[in-house]
Amino acid sequence: MNDARIHTQLAINFAIISILAFGGANATLPEMHRMVVDANHWMDSATFTRLFALAQAAPGPNVMVVTLIGWQVAGLLGAFISTLAMVVPSFFLTFGISSFLPRWRQLNWYKLLEKGLAPITVGLVLASAYLLTRNTSISIGAILVTAAAVGYILILKRNPIHTLIFGALLGAAGWI
């Protein structure tokens, strides 16, 4: 497949994903995975998961995963095209709709739309989590630490930063 065709596919696919990205880039990970791994075979699942992990570890927006996918698939130009395709359509859509929001917020259909999109977004994020954990080896220690962190945050209402520090220390010690 030639570079121009790959660049065009990246642009079209990420532009479509951009318009559908309720909940941000992370909510669209299953569709990104389907596009780059299953449909086009540009990379394997392990590489996709590593790129996501790298994007999450680096400071910056969640959309950085798109830049890394573009870079992996088609170099610097691919990174540029993918990032623009993911950001520009949703920017214009948001900008265009923003002038109507003050009026729409009062309407019943808009309130119903907001309530309906919330569980969809949660479902998309959970699908992303499933996709990423499916390609990762999980130990009993990691499961126990995760359960303890969730309990610490949700039940005891503690600051999540403590769990991050504790998890980092366990990881550095090689226990998880």
Characterization of this structure:
- The chain contains eight helices and no strands.
- By secondary structure, the chain is mainly α.
- The radius of gyration is 19 Å and the shape is flat.
- The model has no long low-confidence stretch (mean pLDDT 87).
Q: Which tags fit this structure?
A:
176 residues, 8 helices, mainly alpha, flat
Describe the structure concisely for a colleague:
By secondary structure, the protein is an all-alpha fold. The protein is built from eight helices and no strands.
Secondary structure topology:
Elements: H1 3-19, H2 29-39, H3 45-57, H4 64-98, H5 101-104, H6 108-134, H7 140-155, H8 160-172
Radius of gyration from the alpha-carbon trace, in angstroms: 19 Å
Q: Estimate the mean pLDDT confidence.
A: 87
Q: What is the assembly state of the chains in this entry? A: single chain
SS field, number of helical segments: 8
Distance between the termini: 42 Å
Structural class: mainly alpha
User: Helix content range of the residues, please?
Assistant: over 70%
Largest sheet: none
Uncertain segments are none
What does the overall shape look like? flat
